[in-house]
Amino acid sequence: MGSDDAYLLTASEALAKIRAGGMTIEGYVRSLLRRIDVRDVDVGAWAYIDKDYILQQARALDKVPMSRRGPLHGMPIAVKDVIYTKDMPTAHNSPIYKDDFPKLDAASIILLRHAGALFLGNLPSTAILMSLSLAYPVNLGKTTTAEFAASYTGPASTRNPHNPARTPGGSSSGSGAAVGDFQAPVALGTQTGGSTIRPGSFNGVYSIKPTWNAVSREGLKISSLMLDTIGIFARGVDDLDLVADAFGLQDDEASAFTGIKGARFALCKTVVWTMAGEGTRHAIARAVDILRAHGAEVEEVDLPREFDDLPRWHNIVLQTEGETFFLPEHRVAKEKLSPQLVGYVDRKAGYDRRAQLKALDSISALRPKIDEIAGRYTAILTPSVIDEAPEGLEFTGDSAFCVSWSALHTPVINVPGFQGHTGMPIGVSLVAPRYRDRHLLKVAKEVGKLFEAEGGWKRNA
Amino acid sequence: MGSDDAYLLTASEALAKIRAGGMTIEGYVRSLLRRIDVRDVDVGAWAYIDKDYILQQARALDKVPMSRRGPLHGMPIAVKDVIYTKDMPTAHNSPIYKDDFPKLDAASIILLRHAGALFLGNLPSTAILMSLSLAYPVNLGKTTTAEFAASYTGPASTRNPHNPARTPGGSSSGSGAAVGDFQAPVALGTQTGGSTIRPGSFNGVYSIKPTWNAVSREGLKISSLMLDTIGIFARGVDDLDLVADAFGLQDDEASAFTGIKGARFALCKTVVWTMAGEGTRHAIARAVDILRAHGAEVEEVDLPREFDDLPRWHNIVLQTEGETFFLPEHRVAKEKLSPQLVGYVDRKAGYDRRAQLKALDSISALRPKIDEIAGRYTAILTPSVIDEAPEGLEFTGDSAFCVSWSALHTPVINVPGFQGHTGMPIGVSLVAPRYRDRHLLKVAKEVGKLFEAEGGWKRNA
């Protein structure tokens, strides 16, 4: 494979090739830009992209001696357009913030840039921060999002790369689509309900919603403080690991997981199982069969009845926190805010602060309980979505299978490998106790190998 | 009183005078600037101030017809230098962010600006946001802070206006000192441990830490996500009410409080009472006597034993969340970060994620319980500080009496009126259940009248 097809590589593969001298960063980035040129009109994953700037970054990075490069040096990354980047505007898919350009890097962006910026170590720190505007890794651009990562309506421009008549999911629509379509190896998204796991499933990629608060959310505009989490998209678990390293994600103790054989999975169909369509039912059944065929135990586990209220508690927290966090936009430019978000501030659903506290406190009480339950198993296996990506671009799909885990703050990874009845990708989720993110990544890597090999769906460029 | 002495007014008094045509905004602001000129060398409350810009704002505001002015039109406000303002740099008292200038207004700043910006309503929204860079109310400047509002070491420049050999408290040092010294009528601060209540007490002003999450923290740099709260300083409860209105603070139901006579207060000395010095013991005793003399019941209430762990849980949350939120600065410029914050990231105290979750979940379980207990009374009466402001500027004072309420997310108001044995001001705290902020303000207004009249300390300019 020459540089021409380099867009097909995962980030880990590309970085290894660059380090081995087999490809320049500019060559790699040019391959991605050609892919974007060909595909952008059909997919529309980008809210902001500046090709000259990307090439300028790549050429500057190529000049850095190998000995002074950080672990992510030259890794191209796409960033959901609700995360502040001081080298690009951040518009939240809202006319209120059209062309807004806060000169601020989110904490996640600082960590990523720094992972490639070792050679700046001797400069004074102000200079370091200034220099970080020049991205290491390569900041490819900002990806489309549902309005404020909160609206159920997708960005009108973005289509599922596997079928342009279908939604790529949301709210991290562009991040899921760009990675699924080989336009970027890695992307950042966010999840408040199902905004990382759902587009992961719909676009046939791996996506992780880490433990809430394990990665600093500084510089990610708030939709719901108790729910929003930075998410990561990639086409391989190795790439998720690269970003997890940069983010400093670590468990208290090393994972004892040694392989699928002898592992124990809890199948949690959850209270919303009746919503599962044929594609998801098939995917879960195949997943169970594959795991068992490779020597794992899979035990169906019904969560205690008190967990049944989680979707309702989640919705109350979402709406009542939205009242607080969208108040500024409601005051300043209500007419430019979608009716859904206006409704949060106007309390259309009728939830008052007492309802909010009841929901918050009830969810809090369940968190140590799910840690205890999940801790008995290698991982929980549970649906990511109700089915393959639905037709149309307006509605980004149902997050019914995601919201409980978002509320519980557990890490969740979508593992691709299955398909729906029209051949669209479907993934399933693995869940672990809070702050067992690295264990979960380790498990997902082995599980993913099996699901991708035997699940029935093949990723095609 | 002419414009010369206008700096002595509360914001409510000044705005009424301006609305009545008795004073221009420029005249008011010039009075404050003269006060600042005289006092700044002794107090050092400002991290950033641009007098020409303040006058420019004032003159522009004076040109707006009365009929088109918002409720806070022309109200000068000082802002703690950890809250982003798009018209002024934000440096967090950290060399890492020296002269940093993110072009972003915090949610709290947008709400305050908008409260005076009715006349902009017909412009397109982008233009509105751009125009908001010109402040209504008047953005007086940025006030000094402990490093990232997190370090126990005060800003070296800032002195207590009532005695320059003593600390103004922290971490909202400049906000407390500026309001206590009549350099600003109102200021924004933050509280993670005791950073709003303690400087309120030390500087002899009212200060409120609202219910956690009741005011959007967007644009306030994160120290601890589960603890940080925007705070407000003023020399009268009417002024706190003005800002609370702009922030949209509202209770589910109107307060039933009608006056001190017949009100019921719970005196909570808390588990750290043995730390209380003579000044605080005297203040609490006087407060109880005054309330009883005016017909209130005061009942001493021991919180259940499970509340005794709160100071320890608070400290664990503070340090372990600090590990997440100061990781970017630790990676980029560890040598410019104070040893205390480096220690959070390096886990000097040895707290792992399991300890963090235990602390978070344990605190969560206590929140509905304190709501229930506090809900039985008009308010809880409890110490604000261990004693009057200590000598020296290095250490900003102990937050022992504040941290439990910060962890519990309840609203707290410091009410001034008492003094220590050297004559320095001492306040006491009133506490209510979560989201009973407006009730608490109503109670504090009546309680404050009594304490200021009969508590023994007099505010002098």
UniProtKB/TrEMBL annotation, chains A, B:
One Pfam family it belongs to: Amidase
Spans annotated as Disordered: 152-176
- MF-aspect GO terms: catalytic activity
> SUPFAM superfamilies recorded for this chain?
Amidase signature (AS) enzymes (SSF75304)
The record places domain Amidase at 29-441
Q: Which residues form the signal peptide?
A: none
Database matches in Gene3D superfamilies: Amidase signature (AS) domain
Q: What name does UniProt use for this protein? A: Amidase domain-containing protein
